[in-house]
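User: structure tokens for this one?
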Amino acid sequence: MTERNQLNCHVLSNTHWDREWRYPFRSYQMDLVDFMDRLLDILEQHPDYRSFYLDSQTLLLEDYLSIRPENRERIKCFVMEDRLEIGPWYTLPDCWGCPGEALVRNLLFGHRDSADLGGTAKVGYTPFSNGQISQMPQLYRGFGIDSIMFYRGIGKHIAPSDFIWQGPDGSRLFAFRFGDYARYNYYYLVYRNGLFGRTCSDRDFKWCGDETPYHVATDQQQDRQYGWLNQKLSLHPDMLRDAMDDAVRMTEPDAQTTELLYMMGHDHSFAAVEEIELIKALVKEAGPNGEHIFHSSLLDYMKAFREKVKDVDLKVVTGEMRHTLKEGLWTTLMALILSCRLYLKQRNAQVSRMVLDGAEPLAAMAWITGSKYPKRFLEIAWRHMLANQAHDAIGGCSVDKVHAAMMTRWDEVETIADELSRRSMRDIATRINGIDKLAADDIQLTVFNTLPVERPVTAELDIDIPIKDGKPMMENFGVFDLNGTPLKMQLLRAFDYDPTIESGYETTLQFMVKRHRVALQLEALPACGWNVYAVRPMAEEKEPSSSLVKNETCLENDYLRVEVNANGTVRLTDKINHRVMDELLYLEDAAEFGDPWNRKFPEGEVPILSKDIVTAKTSVVVSGALTSTLKIEYSLPLPAGKEGTQRSQKLVEMPIAFDLTLHKDSRMLEVALNLDNQIENHRLRLMMPSGIADAVNSYADGQFDVLERVIKLPNSDGWKEKPFPTHPMWSFVGVSASGNGFTVLEDGLTEYEVLDDAQRTIAITLMRTFGAFVYGRLTPGSQCKGPHSYRFAIVPHRGTWADAEIPALVKAWQTPVYALESTPTKGTLACRHSMLEVVSDGLQISGIKQAENGNDLVVRLYNPFDDARKARIILGMPVKEVTLLTMEELPLQKLNLSEDNSLELPIEAKRITTLGIKWQA
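Assistant:
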């Protein structure tokens, strides 16, 4: 700790603005208009009101200006004068609840919007996430930000209040850990004392005096709490000296410089001109030291800190910030947000992929081939998604109306993504020269691969055969490549269908088709490109194909054998590595009497395990040589809800259905789970004993990273908050040891645990439902009643996740191919083409988009591995130059492009790399 001659106390005016939480957006928006109107008046009328920090987000300004567009120039003026500090974020996300690329887009929108309003406050103010992801240092550095301020996920036992946080790639930030009383230290310790005469712990209202509360007494707004008809702010100077002394005593011992930061704001708190008088009174009470207490700004504080910290050897801390609270108060991790309303997390992941892995790469392909890039529609989609990723929204800890509105926004994003994908495929197919490669009577099938790697895939597609004179034009058909070789195909079902043809010029036309749902084995689809196939008549196969179904309870291919046990669990044999995993896919159900942030259950409760109490029925759903599916069905009797301090005696049957799908050449077992939840106050988990008894760590992917976490919990006797056995994941989780690995791929769930048992059982939370909510209000939607669907894949393998290239595997599993059926088209594009191919040893693409400047194609890659990897990037377009960019899309250096339109790109371990490709139209 440094020698201190004199402390400088920076008092910062600010607020924390949840767009929607305890009330829906429009309710808070009206409060926001009142708040901003008053703030602008204060800044205008009181030049001595130094500055106001607007919570690091710009969406609240977008919401305000949608009502008060006439105040745009007023805001811009104050931003340019550094009296209103805005950005760098668009919304305040829970970083575990969104893909890494969404965090980059969030910062891009925040920077763009704040720049349009006068400038961006380049400070990493980040107290809004329940912990911090490992790659936050690199993300902030990618936007020219050298600092981060937060409190959840870090404690005194980990670091002092000022330290260096180093990310997995080596990026470093000045890090600030808010101490006791978190981001409202001055608000509770000084502001309330000085303006209301109330101490920190005094939160009881006495129905007397000349302050007048009110509430709506009729039925219209029973959920709305009391407000004030009038509320008086008046100085209480007699309380100030002790209050400020307490604030300094709590802050100073842990600080590494003489610069101390005091935050005046609270949730939805308004600016008040009395803040100035309060600081003046503090200065007066402090006597000779008063000149060192002053109204400041976050940028002023950072400038002073950087100057003072030059001579300080700060502690370096690494890793993700998910530490629980050992000592202190108000700075708990609250990690259980991961399992609140998991249907929101699922929808978020699925819709995000529709944009990132569908609409955007397809729009980029269409743009390069001659279409206009749909920038505005994609922007609308992203703003909806980012609004839904705000921490109290995606956290699932808001009132029901908030989460209903989120689902509507996601529906809009899905519509945009689907329509943009359709239009992009249409535009590209129109430009393909299919007519010279296909016969006149052929049907053209154009299949698109949006991943930047060449891939084989077994895809399920709908192929329509027109009906003429009551008969299909092709009684039997096949799908052929352009060399005339038939593709392996399996008919799943067929039915008559009467589509319409829609046009902006002609009235709707109708015709009849025979629609065939087929499984089609596609080999070597071009990377980020397309391939044309011909649908034409072929003779019916006389010899029936063999099936992957061996009997009603068994599937088998060359790699895996799947057997269903009588209790509904699965025995999986890895034929290549000679391993057997048994009792996979049982369900565990336990009581949940807590709330969004806390888990509570009866002492001594023993969870209910499906494998111990059910008898399952198994049936064959699909039988064929390319793909086969078995269905497992049973009813799971569970306590209906909560009775007093225990689970109820009444049992309700929960219908459970698993679909197990095995493809011919696949090394994974695909699992679909459908259930109908009518149970209250419970946690339901899917359990998979890995059989890897000597595993010490679990691994799971996160945002631009794969993280290993110790399975055995540390001793935490006496801690305020015990370490959590559950952890975040994004798309896979697994364990490995002694040369063997077991990985589960999943689709949108965000919480897992690896049990410290002999089997190293992986537990994935399916739902955690409860009735309690903050301030005693109930939210029925948090019981998550109704049908739920889940998707998994089980992958036994040799070695670690890196050896098995799990990141590439899960990306391919989650990303469908896109296909368009038409008559042969007459254009100039080749029938097979790749726009962009990344040849590498497992490097991943997170985004393909038009640059913010509207001219270049931006491609973002990342290396999730612990060692450096090299990529060869092959470009299938005329290119002028390729530039290495920051994440903010500022140029760093031009890269050398080979004569064959490719470049070699080394990427260091855990590094995120952004390229700008200037192409020739």
